Amino acid sequence: MTGTIEWRVNPEHPNLHEARVNGRMVGWLHKRPDYCDRGHWQAAIELEHDIQDAFPRYFMRFETAKQEMEDFLRWRLWKVRAPA
């Protein structure tokens, strides 16, 4: 059984996109300044995880970051593997 991951922009912080499940924030993507050379988007998970999960993560493209976050959350929350 899987749930739904909903995205919303935080009204107080327009560069912060929150991933929510059942109203609970489980992760977020944050727009980084243009001069940042690690990536334009920083991703983090608000779930318990160990050092091997290595958060925060950095991405160059929003859509790539969002898809990777959704794949990770589906696996972590519902054990649904991402398509190969």
What sort of overall outline do the alpha carbons produce when their principal axes are compared? globular
What's the domain count? 1
Alpha plus pi helix count: 1
Which stretches are poorly predicted, pLDDT < 50 over at least 5 residues? Answer: none
The overall strand count is: 5
Structural class: alpha+beta
Describe the largest sheet: 5 strands, antiparallel
Strand percentage lies at 35-45%
Along the chain, the helix and strand elements come as: EEEEEH
Task: Give me the Rg, rounded.
Answer: 13 Å
- Note the gap between the termini: 20 Å
Describe the structure.
This protein has about 80 residues and is α+β, with helices and mostly antiparallel strands. It has one domain. The protein has one helix and five strands, in the order βββββα. The chain has one helix at about 60-80, and strands at about 5-10, 15-20, 25-30, 40-45, 55-60. The longest helix is centred in the C-terminal third of the chain and has 17 residues, at about 60-80. It is globular, with a radius of gyration of 13 Å. The two termini are about 20 Å apart. The model has no long low-confidence stretch (mean pLDDT about 95).
